[in-house]
Each structure stands twice: as structure tokens, then as C-alpha cells.
Automatic annotation (TrEMBL):
InterPro entries linked to this entry: Ferrochelatase, Ferrochelatase_C, Ferrochelatase_N
Keywords: Cytoplasm, Heme biosynthesis, Iron, Lyase, Metal-binding, Porphyrin biosynthesis
Similarity field: Belongs to the ferrochelatase family.
Pathway: Porphyrin-containing compound metabolism; protoheme biosynthesis; protoheme from protoporphyrin-IX: step 1/1
Name used for this protein in its record: Ferrochelatase
Amino acids binding Fe(2+): H188, E291
UniProt-listed Pfam families: Ferrochelatase
E.C. number(s) listed in UniProt: 4.98.1.1
Organism: Psychroflexus halocasei
């Protein structure tokens, strides 16, 4: 029997700094997120980051937390419920870190007789800190606990016409309500090193911009290329004028170089250069979360206005939009009917 495991990133159990600390501990000790040798990673995460960051992050989470819980989890549950109503295949939801865990999600499916699982990482673009770590954990869990389960993985859908259509619609619906000068596509950042590590050719990636435009099999695993492609395809679909939209990367952590341009500096510069009205969309995220509701809708808005900008519009993620639910359900049904 076939079943589906939707997997998102995860959130702390509550905004209590203790829960935030335990969530960040699991998340940041993942070798595909902070990719340092174990000893160094332990010193950095447990010796430094976990002593200061949980308090600061807990404050940020408190600003966006809903009565029902973490926006990311609540929105993922809504998506799961709606997809469940559209398809007859059993659908479980799991988080890569925290609860509901991937092990429980697989157990839930297995208890219903499922042995063929469609694994759906809820990330449009591939990154070793997101898609890859989900696949690796799924395989570890299979080897250890569910030897009868076979996986099919939904590939990154950054350029899938159905996804581009849904994302474009979600953007145009907001743009039609406002007057704006510039549309910024802000993606979660990753350290540049991650991009080089994922280069399967070991020679293509230059992080200088030009490589992402030159066709290469490296692009199958290149987060930067895939982000720029999503922007380009939406720009094409919405017939956006050259110069009225651009791409940036947010949420950097630590001192090593992350993908540039950085969103906070971009927003600041745009305001200083006289751009008065901007709209920001965050296509690395399927569900709204701390990084969209706090870092963009609150912090970036503040930076923009402090530097002379007048209107800042945050465009919500595709969340549980009906056309996204229908698209995901169709992908699932097509897989369920195959073979
Ligand atoms: C080295 C650190 C990090 C990498 C690499 C990274 C990549 C990455 N993350 C997401 C999606 C999300 N990240 C979120 C929160 C978050 N991310 C990091 C660090 C890295 N992310 C931290 C420390 C945090 C916690 C919050 C904080 O303290 O600032 C979230 C939000 C979760 C929520 O509960 O709302 C998401 C979603 C992607 C897509 C990505 C690589 C492409
Ligand atoms: Fe992150």
C-alpha cells in the first residue's frame, strides 16, 4: 500500500527558552546544517550558540506565535488536512527536527499497512541543510526500524510549471492590491561553502553569478541556481519588467560568507537610494514561519522604513492555498496511480 510523508523543518515545542534550546540543539547539531567536524560543531553549538541564542530566538518566536502554536506547524497541519481531503492515499506529516518526528510519521503510515512511501520535502529548492538531511534521515530510519518501506522522493520543484503558477498567482494577488516600485524575492541563505560541497562536478561552482546561468548537471543540487531560476520563471510568468525585481538571501548565522546579496542590506540600500515602496516574497519557504513573519514582515519592514522607505508589503507563503493543495494532491495521485 502507498502513503505520503510530508516533511517540513520543525519548530520548538513552545516559546519557552528551554524548548527553544532543545530544538536549536537538535537542528544545529545536524552535520548538514552546521557542517563542521563533530568536535568543533559541538564546541560551537553547545559551548557558544546555545548559551545565548535560545533566549534571543525565544523572544522572536513569542512575537509570531499563535494561540494554536507555531505558525509553521499549524500551517503544515492545515496543508496536510486539506490534501487528505483531496486524495485517498494516507498522508502523514512530520518535522525534520522536533515533533511530530519523522519516525512517528513513518510508524503512523506503517501501522496502516503502507510500505511504499512518497517522501515530500516541503522545500522548493534543494539544499543539503533541508532536502538532503530529510532524505538521509528517512533512509537511516528505514534501515533501522522500517526495512520493508521503499521511498520515492519528490524532487525539488523550484522550476515545476505547476509550482511556478501557484507561486506567481500568490504574488500577483497581493501586487494587484498595492502600488509598488520593486519586488524582492528573499530566499533563506546558506553558507557559500554548502553550495561548493553540493557541486557534484567539483569544478562548476564559482559563486560569482555566472556559473548559475551556464547549464550544468551541478544545478540539480545547486541551491543558488534553483533560487535564481524560481525568480526568473516567476518574472517571466508575471511579465515583470527588468529592473523591477531582484533576488536576495536572508537569515545568515555566523561569520563565514553566506550567499549574497543579503536581504537586510538590500532593503536598507533600496530605501537609501530612493525606492519608496517594496513588496517582498519568500519562496524558499512553503509555510510562513519565524523567518518570514518576524525577520521579513517585522524586521525588514522596520529597516526599510528607518532608511526612508514608505510602504513595505510582505507577501505570504503559499501555505494552504487552495491551488497549492490541488497541485500537491495531483502530484500525489499521479504517483499513486503509477506502476
Ligand atoms: C547554519 C545555520 C542554518 C542553515 C544552513 C539554515 C538553512 C535553512 N533553513 C531553512 C528554513 C528555516 N530555518 C528556520 C530557522 C532557523 N534557521 C537557522 C539556521 C540555519 N538555517 C536557525 C538558527 C533558525 C532558528 C531561528 C533563529 O534562531 O533564528 C526556519 C523557521 C522555523 C520556525 O520555527 O518557524 C525555517 C523554515 C532553509 C529553507 C534553509 C536552507 C535553504
Ligand atoms: Fe534556517
Amino acid at each position: 500500500m502507498k502513503g505520503v510523508l510530508l516533511v517540513n523543518l520543525g519548530s520548538p515545542a513552545s516559546t519557552d527558552p528551554k524548548d527553544v534550546k532543545s530544538y536549536l540543539g537538535e537542528f544545529l547539531m545536524d552535520e548538514r546544517v552546521i557542517d563542521l567536524p563533530y568536535l568543533l560543531r559541538t564546541i560551537l553549538v553547545k559551548g557558544i550558540i546555545l548559551n545565548t541564542r535560545p533566549k534571543q530566538s525565544a523572544k522572536a518566536y513569542s512575537k509570531i506565535w499563535w494561540d494554536e502554536g507555531s505558525p509553521l506547524i499549524v500551517l503544515s497541519e492545515k496543508l496536510q488536512d486539506k490534501v487528505n481531503q483531496e486524495t485517498s492515499v494516507p498522508i502523514s506529516l512530520a518535522m525534520r527536527y522536533g515533533e511530530p518526528s519523522m519516525k512517528n510519521g513513518l510508524q503512523e503510515l506503517y501501522d496502516q499497512g503502507v510500505t511504499e512511501v512518497l517522501l515530500v520535502p516541503l522545500y522548493p529548492q534543494f539544499a543539503m541543510a533541508t532536502t538532503e538531511t530529510i532524505i538521509v534521515l528517512a533512509e537511516q530510519l528505514r534501515d533501522e526500524f522500517f526495512p520493508k518501506i521503499d521511498f520515492t522522493v519528490v524532487p525539488p520543484f523550484y522550476n515545476h510549471p505547476d509550482y511556478v503558477t501557484v507561486l506567481s498567482r500568490s504574488i500577483i494577488e497581493e501586487l494587484e492590491k498595492i502600488d509598488y516600485d520593486h519586488l524582492l524575492f528573499s530566499y533563506h541563505g546558506v553558507p557559500e561553502r554548502h553550495i561548493r560541497k553540493s557541486d557534484i562536478t567539483n569544478s562548476h561552482c564559482k559563486i560569482d553569478g555566472s556559473c548559475c546561468q551556464t547549464p550544468s548537471k551541478a544545478h540539480q543540487f545547486c541551491y543558488r541556481h534553483q533560487c535564481y531560476e524560481t525568480t526568473r520563471l516567476v518574472g517571466e510568468k508575471l511579465k515583470l519588467k527588468e529592473g523591477t525585481f531582484s533576488t536576495s538571501f536572508q537569515s545568515r548565522l555566523g561569520f563565514d560568507p553566506w550567499l549574497k546579496p543579503y536581504t537586510d542590506r538590500t532593503v536598507e540600500k533600496m530605501a537609501q537610494e530612493g525606492i519608496e515602496k517594496i513588496a517582498v516574497v519568500t519562496p524558499a519557504f512553503v509555510s510562513d514561519c519565524l523567518e518570514t513573519l518576524e525577520e521579513i514582515a517585522m524586521e525588514a519592514d522596520e529597516i526599510f522604513k528607518e532608511n526612508g522607505g514608505t510602504e513595505f508589503t510582505f507577501i505570504p507563503c503559499i501555505n494552504d492555498r487552495e491551488d497549492w493543495v490541488k497541485t500537491l494532491s495531483r502530484w500525489i495521485d499521479e504517483w499513486a496511480l503509477s506502476k
